[in-house]
Amino acid sequence: MLKQLATEVKATMGIYEPGPGTVYGMLAEFKDPGALYTAAKAVREAGYKRFDTHSPFPIHGMDKAMGLPNSKVGFITLGGGIAGLALGTWLQWWTGTVSYPMNISGKPFFAFEPSIPIMFELTVLFAALATVAGMLAMNGLPRPYNPLFYSRNFARATDDAFFIHVAADDSHFDEKDTGALLERLGGRNIEIIHDRGDAE
Amino acid sequence: MPVSSADSEKTLASTADYHAEAPLVQGNLSFHDITELVTAHTEKKTPLAWWGAFSLANIGLLLLVGMVAYLFWNGTGVWGLNNPVGWGYAIVNFVFWVGIGHAGTLISAILFLFRQQWRTGINRAAEAMTIFAVMCALVFPTIHVGRVWAIYWTLPIPNQMEMWPQFKSPLLWDVFAVSVYFTVSLVFWYVGLIPDIATMRDRATTKVRRMVTGVLSMGWTGANRHWRNYEKAYLLLAALATPLVLSVHSVVSFDFAVSIVPGWHTTIFPPYFVAGAIFSGFAMVVTLMVIARKVYGIQNIITIEHLEKMNIIILLTGTMVGFAYITEFFIAWYSGVQYEQYAFLNRAFGPYAWAYWTMMTCNLVFPQFFWIKRLRRSVPFMFAISIFVNIGMWFERFVITVTSLHRDYLPSSWDYYTPTFVDVLTFVGTFGLFFTLFLLFLRFIPMVAIAEVKGVMPQADPHFYDHAGDGHDQAHDVSVTTPQDHTQS
Amino acid sequence: MGIRKSNPFIWLLDPLRPTSASASYRFEWSQSAWLLPLAVGIAGLTVSAVGWATDASQFYFSYLVGWAFCLSLALGGLFFVLIQHLTKARWSVVIRRIPETLLWSFPLLAVLGIPVLFGMHDLYHWTHLELFDPASPSYDPVLAGKQGYLNSTFFIARLVFYFVVWTIIAYKLYTESIRQDVEGAADIPARQRFTSAWGLAVTAVTVSFAAFDILMSLDPHWFSTIFGVYFFAGSFMSIMAFTAFIAMILQRKGMLGGVVTTEHYQDLGKFLFGFVVFWAYIAFSQYMLIWYANLPEETLFFRHRLEHGWEYHSAALLIMHFILPFVILIGRWAKRMLPLLAFMSVWMLVMQWFDLHWIAMPVLHEHAQFSLYDLAAWFGLAGVFMAAFMFRLSRHALVPEKDPNLATSIAFTNT
């Protein structure tokens, strides 16, 4: 039960369990962003869920094509922001009135007017750090080991090549059928990725 | 009657303006060309010219280290500060460098929110400039405290003396604002770098390179599931950095404006400092980019259109700053407060009139040449203007700081401030620090955001490959794969 | 074909003859669109007239607030159009005609401003000549020092100058845009950009000084360099609210279908949110600096507004002009939920009026109060202002039809 949940969560990050044996998934290259977009749409319509596209830059509209919901990073940002605001307010109030009260040019020990700048700065600091931490966590990064790195061709995913990777973990995955589908959609250099577990 | 939907779709397809304006990336480059063009400089053998520049910058850095050591040994008496001018070069330089930094955040965050896609060509270098400029800025308040070993007292760290920093002091707001700004800028910059470091990783030929880029890229594979969160995070960081950048120079302006020193205490300071910061920052970006694009042969990515747009921003912000000078002057008179009136007349016609008129000429007059299209597209001309603006903005801070202080309420304490060689050489030294860092950046880090530039090219849009309603395939208009000549202009 | 000047009587309302006959996006609403606001306007002004007869000072202050409200909308529209042209903005083409139509409000506002001139003696303390006379017991040396600027002749001359300048810029931007509908000349975008370049500089300076003159000098001892920016922030915020609200009304009446989409509303919502925050930033900068320095010549402005009941107005301004709209509008969903955005637009327009009321009214009343005449003058002036706006809108196309970026604008999506 818990293990299944972990698998589900990891799948949203693009981390999949190897399928039968060491088969991790199937990788196909497409010639341009347009072809990748059309293919991703078709793969989703064929019922696949655990697949991903890889491209050197984000492709406009791909979330919709893949059927992915809106990113949830914003909630983490909000949480971070509220924490920062609370800390900034409390810190200035507590040090100024309780722990170390000091009369400065007759101003109140605590007032909102001079406290706003630091309240604001800490809100932004915490919100920004939470955003980045949240983004990395939701993406399952850092992830030094990824079976996709075994593919020589895949190195071009960060240059000028466009890939679809269908995980062996997907309930529809079948070496023959999936391969045929990707080929029909215009996939080239189709290869099976194995999760060998070594570092070459 | 609104046109029917079929009609409007046709109009859409035929006027969708892929070609309406000069393309952001020129010279018909493919995705691969961009990768090559940008990463090549981090992979090739270090050019001799780089070593030359780096040595020069290092001399400057050594100068800074030497001057700071001399200062620490002797104390702040080696500076030209006197009574009443207790704030001299150190504060001027601090505000100058923080201001420089603002253009980077403006380009990376504000222009991003306004969907100004031309920012992609310059944002990486501008953000690097931000981080290095803020580092230079942080030097000055640190060494100005006198007892530098107690600098950590500015941070709210529980201690055995049971003392806390005084949060009502604007100088402490500065500590928070600038350090938060530095941290957030660094994080923002690093997030933008992740996909590009992955590109470097996938091209790495040596083991060390693979290890370093492998760790720093955190296993990035360009997965769309990742891009989705990544783009959202980037948008949120931009939305956070926008008010942050406004707050930073506002807080810097509060250092002056919360006081009751005539010439410092005026309510327009926050937005006026922000405009000035953007103004000076863009001038610095133009100075640096004019050289870098030429030396590194990336004129097709940082095109003349980019430079022209930056010059328009210089014109706009320069005029805003100039208008703020005039408003200040007017309200000083209008206030009916004799000290205010005197402070401003003294600025313009007193012993520091030379500094005031240098500032006015450089900041208000020179940028006006950019009304002329031919001039704002002329590389040598804009280079000269950008230098003048940098000088003018340094003088602005000098005028604000020194002219307001050198006349006290008590005429018996009036004095004239002259910097010593330590003041001047420390300032020169920070340029050494800045250029050392900037040269390291140019050498080891992709100076253009590769993934972002690719993302705004017309062929990055999946619908670019659709057949338009009139049967015209737009993909034919731009060749995607033909190798091209990179040496154009 | 071309555009023709309208006859001199109509000129005040619209300098051009109708061109909508050949338009694709036409105003399709009965005359009640402008008759109804006109009726409200006349009713409001009638009640105000009673106010003038019974309590002239109250009437003038109420009238000034209502007039400044309409003026801030028109100036906000001017800024918006100038900036759209300068940045070659594409997303906003479909909604640009709304602020563009608002531009030609300046001649009418100049006429409606005449009562302010008649009321100068009640409104502006510095018009009392005995203040400048050293022999008089009410001699005020500070104000005497400002006499070179704060005197009736120069004040009226400045107002005339501002209105002439704004009218010229508005005329160029408005008529060129209508001419583009009719003739579609290819050089119009470039000409508009040229006008906008110098127009923005001139508008920024004149608006800043107009804010000093019309509002800041109500409290002639007080001064704040940021005041022009403060007025600008409120104006720009209001025009975003106004544009979103009018577009929604037009769509409800079956116009602009498929042209203005949720995407455009989201962008308008973003600007609205952005300027709510910008206003707060400017307001805070002004308040905090004065609070901190604690100089008597400056704090008196806030002292008036923090006692005798005005403190509730100040608190309401903080909460309802900033905190609540900030929390409500921050989410993406809020900007895309049209009924909510419509509500927030009206809310922010009311807050803009409330802000101006907060600036002007403590000068007249030591104790906080609303007067019936505040509402009467506001509704009266806004009614007439809206009637003229609707009338103008009905005579031309609802979008700049031949703008080269219209199709891009229609197809625009947020990412």
Topology:
The complex is a heterotrimer of chains A (200), B (489) and C (415).
Chain A: H1 2-12, E1 23-30, H2 33-45, E2 51-54, H3 62-66, H4 73-99, H5 112-138, E3 162-167, H6 175-184, E4 188-194
Antiparallel strand pairs in A: 1-3, 1-4, 2-3
Helix pairs in contact in A: 4-5
Chain B: H1 5-15, H2 31-43, H3 48-74, H4 89-113, H5 123-144, H6 170-203, H7 207-217, H8 224-257, H9 269-295, H10 304-335, H11 338-349, H12 353-365, H13 373-376, H14 379-405, H15 421-444, H16 450-455
Helix pairs in contact in B: 3-15, 4-5, 4-8, 4-9, 4-14, 5-6, 5-15, 6-7, 6-8, 8-9, 9-10, 9-14, 10-11, 11-12, 12-14
Chain C: H1 8-11, H2 32-54, H3 56-86, H4 93-103, H5 106-112, H6 114-118, H7 120-123, H8 141-145, H9 152-183, H10 188-214, H11 227-252, H12 262-293, H13 296-304, H14 310-329, H15 332-336, H16 338-364, H17 372-394, H18 406-410
Q: State the low-pLDDT regions of chain C, or none.
A: none
How confident is the prediction overall: mean pLDDT of chain C? 89
Helix and strand sequence of chain B: HHHHHHHHHHHHHHHH
Profile the largest sheet of chain B: none
From the helix content, strand content and strand pairing of chain B, which structural class follows?
A: mainly alpha
Major sheet summary line of chain C: none
